[in-house]
Amino acid sequence: LAYLLEQSARTYVGGRVRGVHLPVHYDYAELRHTPRALRAEFAARGWQRVVGFQTRNPMHRAHRELTVRAAERERANVLIHPVCGLTKPGDVDHHTRVKCYKAIMPSYPRGTAMLSLLQLAMRMGGPREALLHAIVRRNYGCTHFIVGRDHAGPGDARSGEPFYGPYDAQELVAEHARELGVQFVPFQAMLYVPSREQYYAADDVPAGERTLNISGTELRRRLRTGEHVPAWFSYPRVVDILRRNFPSRARQGLVVFFTGLSGSGKSTVANALMYRLLADDGAGRDVSLLDGDLVRTMLSSELGFSKEHRDLNIRRIGYVASLIAKARGIAICAPIAPYAAVRAEVRRLCEAHGGFVEVHVATHIDVCEQRDRKGLYAKARAGQLKQFTGIDDPYEAPAAAEVTLDTAALEVAQSVDNIMA
Which residues contact 162 (CB under 8 A, 6 or more apart)? Predict the structure, then answer.
C-alpha cells in the first residue's frame, strides 16, 4: 500500500491485455521459466506430483526440513519458487537471496528438487495473496502448494496486534482448494530440539523438550556483529553469503544527514566533519559531502522552492546518498530539509544500505538572522523573497534526531565531537 500510494503512478489504465514480448532479464536467465517451460521440465523429469514452496526470504535448515517433509508426506518432488519482484521494505535483496537458494539446493536428495525464480511482487496481502500464490503455482504445474503460518502477512497492525490471524491464510486456501485445482499443504513453524539434534513441527515437539530458534532480527544482529550463527540453524555457505550482505557496522555505508534553518551552521559543521573523517581515513571508507547549495546548483538547478520541488530536491539528495552508502562509503548531506515526511522517506531509503544519523542543527532563528551575510532573512521579512523557511514557510523540527546541536553554544570542533561520539 505504501508503494501504491506514495511511489507508483497516479493513473492506471485498464482493459484487455495483449502479450507482445516477455520481459527481458539479464540475471539468472537459467532460473527463470515461463509456466509452459516449467511444466515441460516437470514432464521431462517424470515429475507427476510437485509441491511448490513460496518464499521471499533466504532459506535455512528449517525451510529445507519443512519442504523435504512436505514432499515425503505427499510423495512428490519439490519446486523452490521464490519471488524476485518487489518485496517488503528491509528484506534481503533478491541477488543475495538467489545466491542463498543456489547454495542450499545441493542439500536436497539428488533429483528431488529444483529451483525456479518467479518475477512477482509481494503485496503482503495475507490470505488473499495466498490464494493468488496458489493459482500462480498451479499455472506453473504444481499439484500441491505449501501454505505456512501467517503466509504473506504484513506483521502487526498499528494496534500492536497481528494484522491477520496466524492460520487465516491456510483456512482460506483449504476452503477453495478444490476450485483452485491444487492441494493445500499446511505446515507449522519448525523448531530445533538440541537433545535429539533434529527439527520438529511446533505441535510435534516431544513433551518437556527444550527448543531453539533464531528470529530474523536476531540473525541480522549476529551477522552485523560477526557473532557465530550455529550450524543447526543454517548452512555455513549460506551464512557466508549473508555476511557479505550484512557487514559489521565498521564496514557498512553511512549517511549523516544534517537539517536546520538557513544560517544555522549546517554546512560549516558538515564540512568540518568531512575533514575530521578524512583525517581519520574515514574508517577505510570514501567520504562525500552533498552540501545543500552545491546540490541545488549541480543536481536541482531547474527546481524552485515550492513544497513539491523542495521534496524532490531532498529525494535526489537521499537517492545519491543511498548509492554512496550502498557502495560502503560515507555520505554527509547538509540541506535545509524542512519537511519531516520526506526526511523520513530518505531515512528509509538510506537505512536499506547502511547506517543513518540525523543531525538537527537547532540554532535559534534569531542567531541565524544575525549570521545572514546575504541578507536573505531581511528580504524574506520585507516580502522580497517568498517561501523562505522559518519566515513564511514552515520548518518541521525532527522529533527524534540522533544528534541535536546548537552552534550558538558550541564551537565547531565540539559539534563534530558530539557527532563522532
Answer: 150, 153, 155, 156
- Report the candidate in 70, 38, 37, 30 with the shortest Cα–Cα distance to residue 142: 38
C-alpha distances (whole Å) from 84 to each of 28, 161, 244 are 11, 29, 19
Instruction: Report which DSSP code applies to 420.
Output: H
- What is the average pLDDT across 10-39? 91
pLDDT tier, 4 (very low <50, low <70, confident <90, very high otherwise): confident
Catalytic residue among 56, 61, 222, 343: 56
- Say if CB 62 and CB 190 are below 8 A apart: yes
Q: SS3 of 53, please?
A: strand
Annotated active-site residue in 57, 139, 211, 271: 57
Task: Please confirm, yes or no, whether 45 is among the known catalytic residues.
Answer: no
3 state SS of 180: helix
Out of 49, 55, 296, 348, the active site residue is 55
**Separation between Cα atoms, residue 232 and residue 102, nearest integer Å:** 19
Contact in structure between 320 and 331 (CB atoms under 8 Å): yes
Q: Largest Cα–Cα distance in the chain?
A: 82
What strands, in cross-sheet order, belong to the sheet with 183-186? 113-115, 77-80, 50-53, 144-147, 183-186
With a CB cutoff of 8 Å and minimum separation 6, the contacts of 201 are: 69, 187, 188, 189, 190, 191
- Among residues 62, 269, 39, the alpha carbon closest in space to that of 142 is found at 39
57 labelled catalytic: yes
Q: Model's pTM, two decimal places?
A: 0.81
Reported as a single tens digit per residue, the pLDDT across 169-214 is 999 999 999 999 999 998 888 999 999 999 999 889 999 999 999 9
CA atoms of 170 and 302, how far apart (whole Å): 53
Cell of 163: 494484522
The question of whether 123 is a catalytic residue gets the answer no
